[in-house]
Amino acid sequence: MNWLRALAAAGFSVVLPGAGHAILRDWLRALVFAGLYLSAVAIFLPPTDELAAVDSVTETVTVVTTEIDTMGQFVLSFVVLFAAIDATFRALGFPPGSSAATDGDEGPSCPECGKELDEDLAFCHWCTTRLETPEDEAEEEPISS
Fold it and tell me: Which top-rank group of organisms is this from (predicted)?
C-alpha cells in the first residue's frame, strides 16, 4: 500500500509540483513546491501576448519550447523532479521522522503504520487497518458470574 501511495504522490507531483504533497497532507511542502513552480513559470514563460497570438495548442507548445531558454528548462525540470522525488520519499516514510505522526502532534497513532489517526474513524485512513477501541474490547469479553 505504501508503494501505491508513493507512486500516486510522485505522479501527481509530476503533473503539478505540490499536488503529491497535498495528497500526503503535507500542506507546507505542497505550498512551497507549488509556489516555486508557479514562480518559475511566471519568470521563464514567454509573454502572454506571444502565446495569445498563436492559433492552436500545437503552435502554443512549439512557441513555449522554443522561447524558453536552457536555464528556464533546467529550473522547471529541476522543480518538477525534486518535488516528485521528495513526495515519493515522504510517502515511503523517509527520512524516518517525516511522517505526519512525528511532526510534533501528540495525538493517537496507528499501531500498524505509526501515522496520525483521526479519532472519529474506526480505521486508519493511511493504511486502512481496522482499529479496536477499548469500548469494543470491553464488550467482547464474556461476563462471568
Answer: Archaea
